[in-house]
Amino acid sequence: MTLLVISPDYASHLLPLATLATAWRDRGERVVVATGPATAGIVDAFGFERRDLRLGRGSNPGVIAAGDQPPDEGDSLRGFFRATAEGALATLRYQARERLTDLMWDPVGRARATARIVEELAPEHVLVDHLAFSARLGLLGAGTAHGDVVLGHPSALPVGAEVYGVPPAWPSAFDPDPGGLEELRRLCRTVSERFSDEWNRAASVLDPAHHAVDDAFAEHGPLVLYNYPSELVDDDRRRLLPPHRFLGSARRSEPADAEVEAWLAHGRRFVYVSFGSFLSVRGDVLARIADALRALGWTAAIATGSTDAAELGDLPRDWLVRGYLPQVRLLGEAAAAVTHGGNNSVTEAIGSGVPLVVLPFSTDQFAGAAAVEAAGFGVVLDPNTATAQELADALRRVMDPPADARGRLDAVAAGQAARPGPEVAFDALTA
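Structure tokens predicted for Glycosyltransferase (431 residues):
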């Protein structure tokens, strides 16, 4: 049996997809990953085969820097980083304008390249990142059954009256201007229309019998796999979803790290802090978090990413601060975590029973933060306005959550441990 995994050349996308594929690998099945060259090391570390498939302009092997990207992508990233400092609506508007080039890069060429790989391998099963739109065009055009994996908040696949790029819910710390929100909605509708036109044009080249779709962002494969805990999805939205499974999380195994293990052996109660591979560039916010933790006198493990650790000020001797840290391992021991609200961070924390302080910056992070807040699994603050004192207050609240929230969070973690995401994916595709 052969499983084909199709991923953009970004570590944050490939890591959960590769983790799902371990259910096939551990049964002795063949796993082939089609992705770009930047993440080849990740493919090798999982013990998988690789086929070269570039699905976009940029790449990210783990920590991203604008200077490491092609000129157009580097300029786009720098614009994005500037927008995050202006606030939620400015960031979402910027991302909406960038969306056509971000998501539909050489759609016909990439679709045909995907189809060639499928023809060569003849895989029994296929897992594809939902945001790999050009690859999904190739799969749909060839009639190849596949698991369509939504790695972000479920609203990354809009349902009902949702518009791609507009958060369907906001956490209480955000009160977007109604006029600005309506402007964002109009912009995102325009982007959806143009994106759908591009999708339909590419699909018609691939298959002249293609029937045009109204909203390509809402298109999906025959089975949608949400890399997300079902406990964070309300019943009203659940009723609108296509055929699907909730995977909970895709918590990966990580290589042993001697320094981390020695640090953990001291048995300190600590807070884990990470803004992922992109938003770690916001050293100003990381510095405020460090100020809050110093004021509390608490121990921290901080993944600084692309921020120089010197920006965080004087670091206590008992803190663990590095550019990259094994997130899943540390979440397994942390008492609380501070995150930008990325899907991997949220799902891996909840899968480990760790309450969160969420500081969302962009895309679906606002909806994800609202879901965490509604479930009582964390506190949400605006990263651009939260003071060190407000961050310290939020950390106190999540470090020792109310008993009912603690019990529900522990129950979610226990359920995922009993039935991990890779096993749910395997059963869904092989049923």
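DSSP finds 16 helices and 13 strands in the chain.
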